Amino acid sequence: MGIPFNYPAINQRTNCPSVGWSGMCLAARFLCNIRNHNNSLKGKRHGRIDRNLIDMFALRELLQLCAKRRSLLVGKSCHGLAIHFGLVTDTVACNILINLYTKCGRNDCARHVFDAMLARSIVSWNTMIAGYTQSGEDVQALKLFQRMHREGRQLTEFTLSNIICACAAKYAINECKQLHTIAFKLALDSNSFVGTAILDVYAKCNMIKDACWVFEKMPERTLVTWSSLFAGYVQNGLHEEALCLFRNAQREGVKLTEFTLSAIISACASLALKIEGTQLHAVIVKCGFHENFFVAASLVNVYARCGQVEKSYALFAYMEQKNVVIWNAMIAGFSRHGHSWEAMILFEKMHQLCIFPNEVTYLSMLSLCSHAGLVEEGHHYFNLLISDQTVEPNVLHYSCMVDVLGRSGKTDEAWELLHKMPFEPTASMWGSLLGSCRNYNNSGLARIAAEQLFQLEPDNGGNHVLLSNVYAASGNWENVLMTRKYLKDSGAKKEIGRSWIEAKGKIHVFVVGERKHPAITDIYNKLEEIYHDMRKFAHITKIECDLHDVHDDQKEELLKHHSEKLALAFGLISLPPNIPIIIHKNLRICGDCHSFMKVAAHITKRLFIVRDTNRFHHFKDGSCSCGDFW
């Protein structure tokens, strides 16, 4: 005779055990015992219970509990018992089983249940497609959708939104356009789920105009819709448009979410908007999102990009709980500001705290070594990456390693790495090699790199200029003329050097030899005053930094009016003496301007921060944070 079993508390609505965690271990045994319990009541007119009805309700509720708790082991036990009792013909129970398996990452088991079903509802198809999409099996999701469409099954907003998400993951723009057409035909394009999914895929595929069109046509916009367009603008580099959209959202009273704020802070970081970033920080604290990992990482990033790495680190240190995204943001911040040892210490602390680096971490460390001239350390981190079984090296890591070698004068080693790596060399790699050849006068290799760049980027005039500068540095003026003529004939565009500075709430932009600024007379007078003081320190203009075929006096005059020098002079006459002067530049700062900034910082006893395309330069007391290597 078996051991008596006491039933757990029965839910009066479903005749099923209560769904507390303690009842989970009894779930499978309940299915066995409820059959015996029902059988004992057979033949009693005053208490007869329909066994099949009770078993079906019990099975459904237990499977729902397993799906909610993602309890795969108990769920499989329920599935086995259901097969034993012949209850798997129930469509609802099978749908719950599919949901259970997909939530537990077992799409193979879910598909087995799906294929074995005698009758499938729209929920069956939607759940299986959603499972594939959420686990990244986008091709399987698309194949199942095609089968569903061929069989003439009814499509719902959930079907389309899920399959469009799969297209977004694969950047399948043609398939997305076809799905957009289907949505039009079924009058589902105005549905918020479908519209948001279409908007998201257009934004991810760099079709931001189409994404905006979908956004404008939507009669109802959810918070996810707004967040998707914010993220789309930022991903496509349209940071000012993202800020304008944010102002519109505020006027319309749209509720702020952590996703919205994270995207907007990223836009402020890219534009180096210190005031707006600080204001958003206050909004974040007020809304209670300051402890969200992604929002906190964006704040660390915005302060670092605005030249305030001390505030960035203070925010990082304040966070009690940190994930790898926040660590990466702080390491990248230190890297941009030339604080190489601080970044390396953080990398070691990550290992000590068992926070494992990802591909972004290694990318930041390699970039740091590149701009600091740390070749041995660069090899060390690159070897760590290769031996790390959890991270797969990508083309960006190899590009950074090529930069590490090239910037340190090891152009031949960089050339060898380009041939050994498992990827095709990119324009970024060839550009890095060409720039290194310019710095170390390797004209032969520079010509090879330039030829590759002309094929990959025929419209980029900067590549022609770099090659011209290589020839000019070696005094080969004949090839300089030929290269510049080819640039003119090709129609490629050369980016004009610009520097800008924020003063009294306005952005002031300068180009070389600027004449249109309202305060230009005062700016030139201040610049002359600085040069006069520099003569006392025997400062000599580095005329070799000007690569025009003109007399030395003319070279000195051309260098004197570079855009960053004009921006500095304006900052000195416009900003209070107790705050740093922060200048941004769209190109790499030249050697003469770098030397000028060091001496000017010593003379004026002020801190100058220049952010060029490579990094931040902190000029103070006659020296620079980069150690004259950039």
UniProtKB/TrEMBL annotation:
Residue stretches making up the DYW domain: 542-630
PROSITE patterns named in the record: PPR
Pfam assignment, any one: E_motif
A biological-process GO annotation: RNA modification
Gene Ontology molecular function, alphabetical: RNA binding; zinc ion binding
Parts of the chain that traverse the membrane: none
NCBIfam families noted in UniProt: PPR
Protein name: DYW domain-containing protein
Lineage of source species: Eukaryota, Viridiplantae, Streptophyta, Embryophyta, Tracheophyta
